[in-house]
Amino acid sequence: MANMAQAIRMALHVGETALGVKDIFGQDVGAPLGGVFTATQGLARAWNAPLDERGIIGCAMGIALAGDRCVAEIQFCDYIFNTIDLLKMAGNTHWVSHGNYSMPLVVMTPVGAGIRGSIYHSHSFDAWATRLAGWKVVMPSTPLDAYGLLLSAIEDPNPVLFLKPKALMRVRGEELLPGEPSDERELKNMIDAPIGDRTQWQAKWPNLDESFRVPIGKAKICREGDQLTVVTYGRTVALCVKAADELKSEGVGVEVIDLRSLYPYDWKTVRASIQKTRRVVFVNEDTEVTNFGEHLSYRVTQELFYEILARPRVLAGKNVPGIGLHPNLEEASVPYYPEIIHTLREVLAEVP
Amino acid sequence: MAATKKGKLPLPQELCVQMLQLMIKARVLEERLIKIYKSGESYFWIGSPGEEAWGVPLGLLANKGQGIQHDFMHLHYRCTPTLVAFGMPMIDAIRLMMNRATDRSSGGRNFSGHYCYPEWNVVPVSSPIEVQYSMAIGTAWAQHREKAKGITIVTGGDAGTAEGDFASCLVWSSRKGQELPMLITVQNNRWGISTSFEGQHGETHIADRGKAFNMRTAVINGNDPIETYIRLKEEMEYIRKTGKPVLLEAQVSRLYGHSSASGANPIPDYDCVREFTSLLLKNDYISEGEVSKMYEQFEAEGRDAQELARGESVPQGSEIWNSVYVNNENADWRNF
For B232-274, where are the E strands, in sequence order? Predict the structure, then answer.
């Protein structure tokens, strides 16, 4: 099974060969490295940009204004903050020009904790991203979803922010990508750049299904249950699934929804689940004050207040300025398994 | 001015008269916009009186059209003269100023001078003073990649060069072997709202910064339309021929202050429209009667356009979700 980095790479290959992507660029995106997570190795259209985030986003916007498709990368979301007004502008260009210009571009950036990345390689961006009106925001938790969501993002006529949970980049999926060789060693030999001299190396791309898509705005139910709904995305999906499985062994049914798209989001799926379970927890790792889960929680109180049996909860990163390097600090700052299952048990135990 | 001796101007009479006509039109239009602001029919004015001698030649020389084979225009909010030279009717600027639903640049959403014309590659003008310098990299890159005929032209004020995007533009456009076909311009009116040039610049000329990037540079008198036309033509030909960038600084006047924010009142300074008119009169390129007729014609056009715009519909609150996404795909979370 492909890991997420390989899945992204394969989606970008389809993008450049079948969907008109002319430029894939960012810091260390081109040869020889092919991205710090290797997600852009072997791509014909990949090139290295100057180490200048504003230049990268501005360039992507200009390429879009010129009518071409591109995928730009900010190496870590921790370094995207100095581009925030350009991101705002990319989101408002279609609106402010009254539809005269559109901004069809994809910006991908690794997010979140989980690799012992310290202060500037552990940040999240989803709460910030959802405040960028005019953008679509997606965040896969599996290689297959990464592949399908990235293809949808490339095709979308609007700016799309593709958030890559960095802790999952090396995690293999449980489902084959359509067209992916079943032997993961075979895939590795085909598309992973060799160690050492890469000057003569070229990727041999598998015969991928170019039509496969994960639609933007569609959530996925990862576990079905009827006593509690957990809405999450990115790195915390697997942790919530693990918690659901443990609670299932105790006879408790927890429904886990991987939102996948943060904006637009699949309220119909979320709402239907909460109406069934009547209890909900929103889990993500961005900081907890003005967290995206708070918006969803607010909506629950507005629309389902009289149907729920427990207070909606948001379990998110602590509102501290950074993620400390030592594991004790990181695990106290962002949701990890013990805190997740503890919170789920609390909500399940709450008596109205 | 480039020459004062009768009959010895370095550009043909027809071109000089055309430039003067467009400069007067741009000036009359801007003064009309200020009147609209001062009469309470608009909320804010920002514009370009004093930059006509720069903006009109730029508009005449640009390869106007849509797509990468034409020039991309990353303009800032003092570029009405360039749009006038492109052929923009006055009513367009007035509708934008009066936030009419008929405003074709923004549908009543944006300030005066914030133009947008896809058919001329005029990408949306925005209020931040620097972002156009980083976005221009992208259109120039697309033109470089496709070896297109068009170049990318970016304008901005002297104060905006303090921002990092200006440095980005210099870095990205000058990389060896990957030079970009860009005319990077700075209109130096020596002010950033109320901050003087000396208050934020140590360099003698802003254009000197290009030298560190091995970039061709030029400093021109942007108050002289003849010098501007000749120098812009040379620099554009160089860019079109070599595919390499030029950093050009044009020294201009700011005749009505920064914007409504500073009162939009006349401030004595070198007036390029008045001086160019005198020059053409002195050289018998035009008569006083013809100049008067130009003013009358453009005053009438502006007055009639304002009258027309006054009666036109305005945007409705129900339209705020329009064009958030392409094809009006729903962007309102209430309807997800």
Answer: 246-251
